[in-house]
Amino acid sequence: MMKLLSLAxxxxxxxxxxxxxxxxxxxxxxVAGAPADIWLKLENLQPIGSFKIRGAANAMARISQETxxxxxxxxxxxxxxxxVAWCARxxxxxxxxxxxxxxxxxxxxxxxxxGGRVIQVPFERWWQTFQDRAYPGVEGTFIHxxxxxxxxxxxxxIGLEILEDLPDVDAIVxxxxxxxxxxxxxxxxxxxxxxxxxxxxxxxxxxxxxxSLAAGTxxxxxxxxxxxxxxGSRTVFPRMLxxxxxxxxxxxxxSVAEIAAAIRVLAESNRVIAEGAGACALACVLxxxxxxxxxxxxxxxxxxxxSRLCAVLxxxxxx
Length: 319
Prior knowledge:
6-stranded mixed β-sheet; alpha/beta; Rossmann fold; globular
């Protein structure tokens, strides 16, 4: 049975990642007439454009240089891969990434610029890599994108920062991909401010958490990929569902069109560039699904293809 992280583990992670990840700003959304007092935690401003550098840095700080000799391996649609590749480059070790063939070219190119070797495979084979924690013919220590305590502890430092910057926050809405971001932040918030509501945000067509929470067991859905590539899957890992049931208050759902609209709002109102996953929480809040009060939306990343961003800003919903 997985347990929520302790505050000691989270504070230790904060010390470990201090030289790699930055403390990102928390700013108010500049939109009048919104359904809540909305704040934005801008993880898109991390060196790799995503919160993933926090978990990657903490996980890799715990690996000995001797173990690193074989290199590192991860499975990722792009952002975790960039975090692992960034840290591998700092340590001078090889990095291999197993990516789905649906991963956007912007993220693949970024991984390669950081020195990572990318192997693109069909979605099902990519998902299997998370379960196997290995890939045939590739050596290296596997860094899990969301399911390891050290990765979640790095992510949990976001919760510490939110509560320090906005102690009277009423709710935090967090994108749900594999669950490592949501369950990490929840561990910090439940320990320090248990009355704060914690809500996961999912995108239609790739939202297994809501039905899984309702059923109490992992549910498989008819997965439909979209330009919101950083979150979503066919099902939920049992251990992550267990953590979610113990730590969050529910799951919200946004349409692909609502997420595209939220990207435009971020760009127009705050001059913030977000990818689809990064705007999912805001889309849910703007639709009124998170209720009122002081709500923080975690803008998890900003790695969006420029062609897709241009289409969104023209009012389109890209494929």
